Amino acid sequence: MKNNLIKATLAFSVLVFFGACKPKTASDAVSGNAAQKVYVAPGEHDEFYSFTSGGFSGQVSVYGIPSGRLLKVLPVFSQDPETGYGYGEDTKPMLNTSHGFVPWGDQHHLAVSQTNGEYDGRWLFANENNTPRVARLDLTTFTTDEIIEIPNSAGNHSSPFVTDNNEYVVAGTRFSVPFGDEDGDIPISTYADNFSGAITFIKVDQESGRMAIDFQLKTPPVNYDLSRTGKGASSGWFFFSTYNTEKAHTLLEVNASQNDKDFILALNWKKIAEMVKEGKGRKVKAKYAHNVYDHNSHSATSTILDEVHVLDIEDLEGVAYYIPCPKSPHGADVDPTGEYIVGSGKLASLIPVFSFSKMMQAIEDKKFDGNFDGIPVLNYETVLHGEVKKPGLGPLHTEFDANGNAYTSFFVSSEVVKWNVKTLEVVDRQPTYYSTGHLTVAGGNTRKPFGKYLVAWNKITKDRYLPTGPELAQSAQLFDITGEKMELLLDFPTIGEPHYAQIVPASLLIDKQKRIYDINENNHKYVVKNEDDTRVVRNGNRVDVYMTLIRTHIAPDNIEGIRMGDEVYFHITNLEQDWDLPHGFAVMGNSNSEVLILPGETRTLKWIPTKVGITPMYCTDFCSALHQEMQGYIRVSPAGSNTPLRYGTGDNAPKEE
Amino acid sequence: MLPEKGQLFENIQIMKSAQKKLHSTTRILVGMAGAVLFIALFVPIWQIQLTAPQYPEGLELFIHADKLSGDVKIINGLNHYIGMKELHKDDFIEFVVLPYIIVFLGVMGLLTAVVNRRELFFFWVIFFAVFGILTIIRFYLWLYDYGHNLDPKAPIQVPGMSYQPPMIGYKKLLNFGAYSIPVTGGWIMIGAVVMAIWGVLVETKFKKKKV
């Protein structure tokens, strides 16, 4: 993707002259009081959280806005040795898929749950592009609580966008592929005949947030890029950008860029959901994993499901329409009123804005320009509100403020452009450093944007920071958008490759943050709530160590009688019930990671001894003044030896025989 | 304006007091004191607030008539560093006895108001006073014991240092600042004491007049 875009940059370098002005230098762009605007004094809090996708790191990062300070990296789709996520026995099932355990993911887009088209701050949905999955994070604990795999999909890019009352999270496939119940062992060149696209609607339980695939739409073999739910006037609809309507299967760079226009697919999801309820569609065999984490058992379970409900889009009448959109559209964004749909052709030099009411009129009048694989194609001119002329080159994404303005990122001309949605006049343009992909306005995808700040998530960094060898951090740029002109305030480096982000007012989340896990509610299979109950149990070559941690000792901290060939499971409960008192646990030479155990939590870490002798273990998270004393020893004897199993701490530690 | 009426009123009072009846003000005071004491059964009486650099949010220990509440577990966890005994409800006979005494004081107060006997009132006052003084002494000894009787194997040992929290007011104990004050139940008890003293004044004042 990045390579293609760089090639596109080169190809268009000649066209840069079409851009309105010569790029300014960074020093021109920053005004005098920018420092004051981003300064958050020690001990003060930022005004907004920015949940930022971690791209190929597979994780989600959380920044404070306006300071740009990294607050936390949340493990989602990749193993995280820092916390033990995906290493500990209790979190391993989170990364299970129909392909087995997948230790890594590519995380692109994020969606905060919504009520009435506004952020309700309950959950954060995250997509995984490579092995199609959608995750749900809880925003009281900032943990990944659920991951569902998307079958019949490949490259889950057009995801996870939510409807205005969390009815559905969608997952549109980037790659069309043969469906799981069809023979996939076929020549790739039969793409046009044998491949299909899939758009998945995941139902969200309004109470628990639990996800379940309600239905999948089987569509013509195009690529789905991005999508947005309708809101206000267009509530009940979904808009998906498509490309590769050429149905190319090789050298897409050229072959998928042939058609002057691709489509934005307008879907009446409410009607389709009713059809599903009425029994339309069929059950299709498909293997996919559904992983759920429980905060009382502090453990995850993975279930492999084997069936989805599929509807063929060409069989559905009056629910799907194509809006022609120039040059392989990337973003398909809906303004806060729901009336205007903005299509951003990656290779276009204008931005078409479509009118929802005109679209509805055209549908009523049956004004179609034929069909594409059985789906009616609307007439471009008929549904067009107007075009933003000469906005820049390579528009990608558009977000909105509450005052009728749109902000579009331009990769090729490397800038952010502010324009008026109604008049389609360009109001301001500011250069970015360099080549912005997504941009985020605080609440910019909701019915009521907060405005105030805009962050450009740039794809190219080059000279923006101290050089760090060939590999550089990605660069984000913060703009103040309260005035007529956008004002660059701050650069800050980011982890992985941020695609999209959601910027949420801190006030929405602060009061519901959990500080500890109540140990009385801990029902982990191997929990020990009292030091007196700690023990070591042998069962064949499996050894279970029921262990507790509290400032500042491990119980038991002397263990003897472990033998080579054993599989040792440490079930470690942190007995602390105090805020910010995690303990960590590590064993020398363990081919696993450490585990971090929050107050009241239990974690299971597996260890296979590799050497006869004494193996130290210790607490890895500096917990108190006597943290360095929080340690212990394990005696490993040769296989078959008869060293008795003995253990204890302090007066109870095994003594000389 | 109405000297006859005033005179009559006083005469009646003197008569009543002669019959060892209570002044009506005292009756109201002792009745009220008895009634509000019941509230002290259900709300915390005393609190110790602790702050430290790593506890900007502070820690609180509430002492009730029958239990301890607040951050008891956390405070116990911290106290083990200096070898202080753990605070456990079961280690205190007070938490068993105190509710009965409070109930007794409350019932006696109400009874005094109803029966309207002077000697009953003074019995109530004396009992209350003895109870109050003993409780304060117990509380002091309790704080002294916890602050001084430390585990000799404690990880942190500062020569000459003791950790007796203040009974009332503020004291710095290593990295912690301890601030000790009455809360709802304590203020109620103090209120009851004030009412008792007031009642005693009313009664003794009349006695003098009579003499």
Question: How would you characterize this protein structure?
Answer:
The complex is a heterodimer of chains A (657) and B (211). Chain A is mostly beta strands. Chain A is 8% helix and 43% strand. Chain A is built from 8 helices and 45 strands. The longest helix of chain A has 11 residues. Chain B has one domain. Chain B is 57% helix and 15% strand. Chain B is built from 6 helices and 5 strands. Chain B has a 5-stranded antiparallel β-sheet. In chain B, strand 4 and strand 5 form a beta hairpin. In chain B, helix 2 runs antiparallel to helix 4. Chains A and B meet through loops of A and helix 3 of B.
Sequence-ordered SSE layout with sheet pairings:
The complex is a heterodimer of chains A (about 650) and B (about 210).
Chain A: H1 2-12, H2 26-29, H3 34-38, E1 48-53, E2 60-65, E3 70-74, E4 96-97, E5 100-101, E6 110-115, E7 118-128, E8 133-138, E9 143-149, E10 158-162, E11 168-172, H4 191-194, E12 197-204, E13 211-219, E14 223-229, E15 237-243, H5 252-255, E16 261-268, H6 269-277, E17 282-294, E18 299-312, E19 320-326, E20 329-334, E21 340-345, E22 350-355, H7 356-364, E23 368-372, E24 375-378, H8 380-383, E25 384-389, E26 395-400, E27 405-410, E28 415-420, E29 426-431, E30 436-441, E31 453-458, E32 474-480, E33 487-494, E34 501-505, E35 535-539, E36 542-550, E37 553-555, E38 558-563, E39 567-574, E40 583-587, E41 595-597, E42 602-607, E43 613-618, E44 631-637, E45 646-648
Parallel strand pairs in A: 13-18, 36-39, 38-44
Antiparallel strand pairs in A: 1-2, 1-34, 2-3, 4-5, 6-7, 7-8, 8-9, 9-17, 10-11, 11-12, 12-13, 14-15, 15-16, 16-19, 17-18, 20-21, 21-22, 22-25, 23-24, 26-27, 27-28, 28-29, 30-31, 31-32, 32-33, 35-36, 36-37, 38-45, 39-42, 40-41, 40-43, 43-44
Chain B: H1 3-18, H2 24-39, E1 46-52, E2 55-63, E3 68-70, H3 72-79, H4 94-115, H5 118-148, E4 169-173, E5 176-182, H6 184-210
Helix pairs in contact in B: 2-4, 2-6, 4-5, 5-6
